[in-house]
Amino acid sequence: MPHTHHGALLAFWVSAVSILALWVYVRGWIRIHRIDPDTIDGWRGGSFLFGVFFIWLAMASPIAALDHELLTVHMVQHLLLLTLAPPLIWLSAPMKALRYGLPQQIADRISRRFRSPALQRLGRAITHPAFCWLAAAGALIGWHIPSLFALGMRSEAWHGIEQSSFLATGLLFWWPVVQPWPSLAQRSEWPILLYLFLATLPCDILSGFLVFCDRVVYPMYFSPGRPLGFSALEDQQCAGALMWTFVTVIYLIAGTIFAARLLSPETLRPHSLVKSGSQLSTTPCTSPQRMGVA
To answer: Coil, helix or strand for 278?
Structure first.
C-alpha cells in the first residue's frame, strides 16, 4: 500500500502556523511584561515553546515521516498530540498572551465574537468534563480501529484529519484539568482525580491489546528492510508498551499534583488566591468580561 500521507505541503503549513503562533505569543508576552511582569511567569513562555515544538515534532518533523514504517513512531505522534503538547499549551496562559500579541482590531473583534451568548453556551458544553473525556477516548479508540487506521495511512487528507483530531481532543481533555484562564475553576477538585483515573482505562485496554496480541493488527507494517531491525509484531508490542507506560506516568504526575494541592493547608483556606494562567484552586477566576478577553 502506498504511503503518501506525510507530504511536504502538510509539513510546510504546520511549520508556518507554529512559527506564527510563537511570534504572536512572544509579542504578547513581552507587551504584558512591560505592564505587569507578574501576570505571566517566565516559565509559562517556555511551556508554550515546548508545546508548539512537540506539535511540530509530531506533524512536520523528519521523524514524523517514519510513522508509515514504524508503529512505534506513529504512537509517539499520538502521545505528543494527545497527552504532552496540550497541557503545556494550556499551562502557558495562551489566551492572555495571544490577545496582547494580536493586532488590537483583530483581538477586539475576536473578543466580541466570543462574548456572544451562543458561543458561550457552546463553550460550556464542549468543555464539560464528560464531553472532554468522551471526545479524547473516542478519538484514541476510533483511529486505532484497523479500517480507520488504514484510511489515515492511505490518504494525506485523512491523515491530517486524524492528527488534528488528536490535538483538538487533547486540548479538550486537558481543559478541565488545567482550567486555563478565562475558565472558571470547579468548586471541588476531587472529581479531577477520578477523571484522570478513568482516562487511563481506554489507553490501558488499547495498549494491553497491542502488547499481548499474538498477531499483527495493522498489516500495512509488513515490509522488508524495516528500520532498527524490528519485526512487525515486535514493533507493535513496543508501541503498546510505550503508550501504556507514558500515559500512566503523565496521568500519575498530574494526579499527584492535584492530590498534593488538595491535601495542603493552603488549599483548605476558604478564600484562596487564584493566580493567572492556570486554575488549580477552588476559587473562580475573574470573569472574561471583566478582564476584557473572550
So the answer is: strand
Backbone φ, ψ for residue 35 (5° rounding): -90, -50
Q: Is the Cβ–Cβ distance between 102 and 30 less than 8 Å? A: no
pLDDT of 276 higher than 60: no
Q: pLDDT tens for residues 244-270?
A: 999 999 999 999 988 888 887 665 444
Cell of 231: 519485526
123-155 residues labelled b (16+ CB within 10 A) or e (exposed): eeeebebeebbebbbebbeebbeeeebebbbee
Radius of gyration of the chain (CA): 20
Residue 7, pLDDT score: 64
Instruction: Work out the mean pLDDT of the chain and round it to a whole number.
Output: 83
CB 243, CB 206: distance < 8 Å = yes
Tallying the residues shown for the chain, one arrives at: 294
String of b and e for 228-267 (b: at least 16 CB within 10 Å)? eebebeebbbbbbbbbbebbeebbeebbeebeeebeeeee
Please report, for the chain, the start and end positions of each structural domain, with discontinuous segments joined by +: 8-291
Q: What angle do CA 4, 81, 194 make, to 5 degrees?
A: 140
Beta-bridge partners for 180: 278
* Strand-pair partners of 278: 180
- Total-model pTM: 0.83
C-alpha cell at 44: 509559562
